[in-house]
Amino acid sequence: MRFNTRILNCLFIVLLVRCERSVPTPTAGTFESMGTTITVFPYAAMPLVQDVFVLTDNQMSEWKEDSPLALINQHAGNKPVQVSQNLFHVIQRSLEIAEMTSGAFDPTWASLWELWKFDENHAVPSQEQVDALLPSVNWKNVLLNKNEQSVYLPLGNIGLGGIAKGVALDKAREVLLQQGFEEFMIIAGGQVLVHGLNGGKRWRVGIRDPEKSQAEYFAVLELTDTCVSTSGHYEKFFFEDGVRYHHIIDPRTGFPSEGVQSVTVISKDAALADALSTAFFIMETDKAIQLAEELSAVEAMIINSDGSIHQSSGFQLSLFDEWSILGSNQ
């Protein structure tokens, strides 16, 4: 299937929509965590979600010098580090997804983070700089000891930025359900988790053309009890000599992945959706769609650089109905 490049050069965004104007707008709560704004509907659920995100970030951020994950990196090549059961499980899950995707998702990508910056200090590293660090990027280097619940990294760094938000969303859903919340939405950057209904209707998640304003969309997903994760080359990037360099690094080359503009993955498993939206960006498109078909309850849409769109068999889009928008958040 092929669509006009301008229309399908899409950015993921969330819309709260309704079909009847009598349905009240949920009140949202927001806070900052994991480098993005987290928005929670309804407001009453926000403190519980915030606690989950803060705890997850404190455990799994490679950027916090005193985090357990940072401790693993600090002792790389020196000794194994005992960690909590939760962190051990997340690292183990990351390695399982790395194997599933033939290394397209690789938590040791963080060995390259010092070379790539996407702020005002951005610069394209030389091939020699990348080659010097690339041997450190190999998920098979990570050694887990289940009996001691320890992690040993012989060289390089581990980063969980490609899965941590999903982990937090899964835990937040568990906490909210335990506390009696039945209808809620959590927006965390490019990820959205929905549960229950919004005013008696399914939640609607819209897809936008990034060349237009943030309020212009071409299609929506109508969802409940699931998570949507989108990765795009437009989230963090810079141009140099007319070339776009974005933040999704191919662990095989050490440079930004090429050939794809955005990937959207739908799965009730938010951690899996988070990781696969990165992996599918890097994998060959046909292999990514094939893997989505093989996995239980996973759907995917990939928009390539030429504007072509590729979907798994269960990925359903609806035409965008402009009058029904209540609000938006990105």
Which descriptor suits the 3D outline?
globular
Tally of individual domains: 1
Helix content: 25-40%
* Fraction of residues in β-strands: 25-35%
- Structure class: alpha+beta
Detail the poorly predicted runs: 1-14, 16-22, 322-330
Major pleated sheet: 8 strands, antiparallel
Radius of gyration: 20 Å
Number of DSSP strand runs: 18
- The CATH architecture can be named as Roll
Strand order of the largest sheet: 2-3-7-8-11-14-15-16
How far the N terminus sits from the C terminus, by CA atoms, comes to: 27 Å
What name does the CATH topology carry? T-fold
Within CATH, the superfamily carries the name ApbE-like domains
CATH class: Alpha Beta
Mean pLDDT: 86
Order of helices and strands: HEEEHHEHHEEHEEEEEEEEHHEEEE
**Tally of DSSP helical segments:** 8
Question: What can you tell me about this protein's structure?
Answer:
This protein is an alpha+beta fold. The chain has one domain: Roll (T-fold), CATH 3.10.520. The chain has helices spanning 5-8, 46-60, 68-74, 85-100, 127-133, 164-178, 270-282, 285-294, and strands at residues 11-17, 29-33, 36-41, 81-82, 143-145, 150-152, 184-188, 191-195, 203-208, 217-223, 226-232, 237-240, 243-246, 260-267, 298-304, 309-311, 318-319, 325-329. It has an 8-stranded antiparallel sheet, with helices on one face. It has a 5-stranded antiparallel sheet with strand order 17-10-9-1-18, with no helix packed on it. A 3-stranded antiparallel sheet has the order 4-6-5, with no helix packed on it. Strand 7 (184-188) and strand 8 (191-195) form a beta hairpin. The longest helix is centred in the first third of the chain and has 16 residues, at 85-100. The model is unreliable at 1-14, 16-22 and 322-330 (pLDDT under 50).
